[in-house]
Sequence to fold (354 residues):
Amino acid sequence: MKLHLKSKIRIIDDFPKKGISYKDITPLLSDNESFQATTDELQKYYANKGITKICGIESRGFIIGSSLAYKLNAGFVPIRKQGKLPYSTTSVAYKLEYGTDVIEIHNDAIHNGDIVLLHDDLLATGGTINAAIELISKFNPQKIYISFIVELSHLNGRSRITNNKTYNIHSLIKFDS
Amino acid sequence: MKLHLKSKIRIIDDFPKKGISYKDITPLLSDNESFQATTDELQKYYANKGITKICGIESRGFIIGSSLAYKLNAGFVPIRKQGKLPYSTTSVAYKLEYGTDVIEIHNDAIHNGDIVLLHDDLLATGGTINAAIELISKFNPQKIYISFIVELSHLNGRSRITNNKTYNIHSLIKFDS
Fold:
């Protein structure tokens, strides 16, 4: 099943810039069977873990984050770029290759009784997920799980996740180049 | 049920600017019961319509668009802002209050056999949805359905949708102020 799903990821060379081998998840999403299978595989993995909230990172993290929230009967919480959320927020700034970025979450979204699944579509060098972990941690949830559809193993993002030994980090599809 | 869902929409005055009464869907999403109920109500409405693809408009349209695609066993297709999609795209430009915006879709995402459900979280004055209809129509699908979680009835967005008589337009929750 996982091999079949991997075949639905489209490799696009030199996007968004020269030298980058981009992993495009849209063929996996637009095919109803692989969309179902992706959600179902993740649901099987996270069933019985008591997940109460899935936090999806804008904007590709919203997609499987949402279908999985439905399937796990959890609430869905968007983590968004600065200025997009209308209510009171907590934010974290993080470094990009050039400049900085800021992500935000609503202050009433996570409570300390929550078991949170933090979801993004892809793990590369880990900058965004580290900022998201820092953000969620401010709300002291019971536990944080971390999930990706695709992991670029050769970029060692997993080892760059702060305190990575303390988290359950899971990806469905791995690439090593 | 619908009354209950309406109570989960948070009204935020003067966001994103003075005079606007913003309808915040995040409390509806973060509550697992209302998230389930929203998806289930829409699924009931669209069951047996033969939907093959749900096109969600970036980025709030990705959320319920995805859980509904899962529940209807349809594929999910993102409609994104310019420059975000890595493969070959078709695009449509549309006017905003100040300046213009461009939305795009992958060229291999929709085929003429598809029955498409176009989903966004909210119908205000209809600018974005009109651009999205124009975009999807270029691929000559069998039929286009149009869905929103929230409709701001007082802004008459429904009557501003081009050829609105020819589409099935559905919203789950209506506000008239």
